[in-house]
Design goal:
Elements lengths: L1 E6 L4 E4 L19 H10 L8 E5 L4 E4 L3 E9 L3 E2 L2 E2 L6 E3 L3 E4 L5 E9 L33 E3 L17 E3 L7 H4 L4 E6 L8 H9 L1 E4 L7 E5 L14 E2 L4 E4 L5 E4 L6 E2 L3 E5 L4 H5 L6 E6 L2 H30 L1
Helix pairs in contact: 1-5
Length: about 325
């Protein structure tokens, strides 16, 4: 069982939840930009949440299914269609072999994810399936997917042909994920103060929380560059390079901001004025160039509560999806 890339998209890569424990070697975690959408995609089709998925940026690829498969598409809405029949997001779908999946139009969001039941047969590098483009390692041959690439599926125990009605190209399963809470108020993002927050002048601290910032077109998987009112530090002394994370907000020399994303460097020498809370990284990752964002200061207790609530929702979804899939097998 497999799928083939007929036409590649802008940037299609194999990703999972990331590669941790190697920052001292200069190897960043990487992984999915929107880890929530990636996890939901896997849970909907009965996979472990850390299974490999395809991360897709717009314009998306054209994909041929060489065998029947159970798939899910989550995250951004690129109006996915199978043989020109529109597909639902956040819902598992059985697709017939020799059908073509494509993503013809951007409706909202920045990144979407494609999962298949069982996952993909790709090798792990340093305990992760994620593609590290700079190291040319992990994922599929350490690179983005190209025309002619074939991704083999892992074995599964479900006879998908039996779930398809005669002559139908697809069958949408009757369960779906409710993700409204994770993505509500998409332009309002909670942040905690960073180690160098106090270096900002009082006026800049006020401007940070009271003004909107706009995502710049040069943003990528390494960092989202923001444009807005320039911020200033009262203390201009040099900084030693220090550890940074996914979501660290750095103040650049020109007074603009960059929010480090999945492929961020492991250390940085710019002031870390804030950190996007983990629970809001998914909706922040879905912002597109020219989208605005408003930062709202919060504390560690609230950040932990938000993350625990999100993880609890994933646990509930996992149990529900497993029950539905077990019913299909039985």
């Amino acid at each position: 069982m497999s799928l083939s890339i007929i036409k590649p998209g802008l940037l299609d890569t194999i990703q999972d939840l990331g590669r941790f424990g190697y920052s001292h070697w200069g190897i960043n975690p990487g992984g999915a930009m929107d880890t929530y959408a990636g996890q939901v995609a896997n849970l909907l089709v009965g996979n472990h949440r850390s299974e490999a998925v395809i991360e897709i940026h717009f314009p998306g690829p054209q994909i041929l299914f060489n065998q029947n498969a159970l798939i899910a598409i989550t995250g951004a809405n690129f109006l996915p269609s199978l043989n020109e029949q529109t597909l639902s997001l956040w819902q598992p779908i059985v697709v017939r072999k020799n059908t073509v999946l494509q993503f013809p139009k951007l409706k909202y969001g920045s990144i979407c994810y494609l999962s298949v039941h069982g996952g993909f047969c790709v090798d792990k590098w340093l305990n992760s399936y994620s593609t590290n483009l700079k190291a040319s390692a992990g994922g599929f041959c350490g690179r983005q997917l190209k025309k002619g690439d074939e991704l083999i599926f892992k074995e599964n125990a479900i006879y998908f042909a039996g779930l398809l009605k005669e002559e139908d190209t697809l069958e949408t399963m009757p369960w779906r994920a409710d993700v409204r809470k994770a993505y509500e108020y998409p332009h309002e993002v909670s942040v905690m103060k960073g180690y160098e927050w106090e270096r900002l002048t009082g006026t800049s601290q006020y401007d940070f929380t009271e003004n909107n910032f706009v995502v710049h077109p040069s943003s990528d998987r390494m960092g989202y560059q923001l444009r807005g009112i320039p911020l200033k530090c009262g203390n201009s002394s040099d900084m030693l390079s220090s550890g940074v994370n996914f979501g660290t907000i750095q103040l650049l020399p020109d007074g603009q901001l960059i929010v480090l994303m999945a492929d961020h460097q492991t250390t940085g020498g710019y002031p870390r004025i804030g950190h996007v809370v983990s629970a809001h990284l998914p909706k922040f990752a879905q912002l597109r160039p020219s989208d605005s964002v408003h930062f709202k200061l919060t504390d560690l207790a609230v950040a932990e509560e938000l993350l625990l609530s999100q993880q609890n929702d994933l646990h509930i979804l996992e149990r529900a999806c497993q029950d539905h899939l077990n019913a299909l097998v039985c």
